[in-house]
Structure formats: structure tokens, C-alpha cells
Design brief:
It is found in: Periplasm. The protein folds into two domains: 2-83 and 185-279, D-Maltodextrin-Binding Protein, domain 2; 86-181, D-Maltodextrin-Binding Protein, domain 2. It contains eleven helices and ten strands. It has helices at 15-22, 42-51, 61-69, 116-127, 143-152, 166-170, 193-198, 200-215, 223-230, 235-244, 255-267, and strands at 2-8, 31-37, 56-60, 74-81, 86-92, 107-110, 136-139, 157-161, 174-181, 187-192. Strands 2-1-3-10-4 form a five-stranded mixed beta sheet, sandwiched between helices. Strands 7-6-8-5-9 form a five-stranded mixed beta sheet, sandwiched between helices.
Amino acid sequence: MLKLKIGGVPEHFNYPWYITLKNKEYTKEGINLRWKDYPGGTGAMTKALRSGEVDIALVLTEGIIKDIINGNPSKITQTFVKSPLVWGIHVAANSKFKNIDDLENATVAISRFGSGSQLMAIVNAHNNGWDVSKLQFKVVGDLQGGIDALTNGEADYFMWEHFTTKPLVDNGTFRRVGNCPTPWPCFVIAVRDEILENNFEEVKKVHDIINACTKDFKDFDNIDEVLSYRYEQQIDDIQEWLSITEWNDGEAISENLITDIQNKMVEFNVIERKENSGDLIRNMYI
């Protein structure tokens, strides 16, 4: 049986992987797929792809594009969540900052360099007409690190997924001063080149299984209640999140899509230059 290692953030976007793993759907196809949580997010997973700690990762689009351009030996095989990710912009509950404009010269907490939290801070700065070169970053590791940094005054604001952090807003840990949606589909599947070369058919089978699950995911019985309980969120928030989240259930990755995203990433100063989009992807459905 082929062993494959996969990683993703421990968030509701990835619950379809939990379902398919629990049902042993990969095992039935001769694949021993082993899941690992990465609370540190995309920056941690791009590092794990490089080291071979994981073979497949569910990563933020902007983070993996930037890292493949910088030498990560992996390819994007498919969009996983095709809707934008809504990033909440948070300050400590007792912070002196009242709105986004107040944050222009403030220190932003990021999980690590190259992470979504850093790249979206750049997008937010661009959206507000700030000088991106003057952004000040404080590396905090993960969401808990962001909580600690804002609480202790080591950083002034922190960007993380809106619904994941909503309980922290509700309980008074954070105050949200705004949102910043990604201007592109939010999550993609990335696979190490070595695995694609040696085990293409098995990787394709993994894609087929997860796509079949996400196609009907919103129609599962009581899915809102299940997610609310598992991720400790208000059911109204889960229902809102489900209403704006769209998974890709098998549409092939295309050079045109990646080119459009790269154009936007250049525009938003997230990358300095574009690469040939064909070098960043491997289409599983040709």
C-alpha cells in the first residue's frame, strides 16, 4: 500500500478530508493517506513540502505560487476552495487603534515570512495606498502566537481567517477593525514533483475522492451543526461561512487562471515578477 503524507490547516475548509479519511476511502484504493495538522499555516506547509515532511498540502494560493517561483519543487494540481478567503484584520480588544487607517505605521503580526498572513498584509497595505516597503512585521508562529503578541503589545494587528477568529472577537480577545478578501481563489492542492513523477495515478485518485466529497458537502445532513460543534463556532457564523464558500469539485487547473492570479499578485506587490504559469502547475485531468 502506498503511503502518502498530507497536510492542512485545522479549519473547517478541510473537514471533507476528515470525512473521507474517517470513511477509509483512500485505503480502499490502496493508499495509506496520513493527515497532519499545520496550525502555522501555509508558510509552515511550503517548508514541509520542500523537506518532504508532506507530499501533498492544502495551501493558500498566493503562498504556494510565491514559493514555487522561489524554488519549491512542487506543482499546483487543482484549486481546492475556489471562493475568496475573508481575512479579518484584528487588534487587541483594548487597543488604541479604532480603524484600518490607524494601522498604516503599526506592526503587523505574521505567522512567518511567506505566509498568507504576511502576503495579505501586503495586499491590505496596497488596498489602502500605504507604502508597502515600510510595513513592520513581527513573526509569531501561529494563531496562538498572534493572540499572545497582540495581548502583550509586541504587535499591533493580526490578519487571520475571519470565521476562525470570530470566537476570539466574540469573547473579547480581539476586536475586528475590518476585512480583506483575497482577490483570487483561496486554497489550492500542491504536490511534490517527486510524488507526481512516481505516483501520478494514485495522486489523481486522491483528487477524485476528495472532489466527490466536496461536490455534495453542503448537502450533508446537519453539516452546519457538525461544523459548529467541531470548530466551536456559532451556528449562524457557520451558516454564513457555508453560504459564501465554494469548493472546486474537479475543474482542472489552467494556465490562464494562474496567469490571472500572478498578474494580480504583481499588481498587489506580493511577487516582483511573473513566471511561466505552465511551470507552476500539473493538470491532473488531461
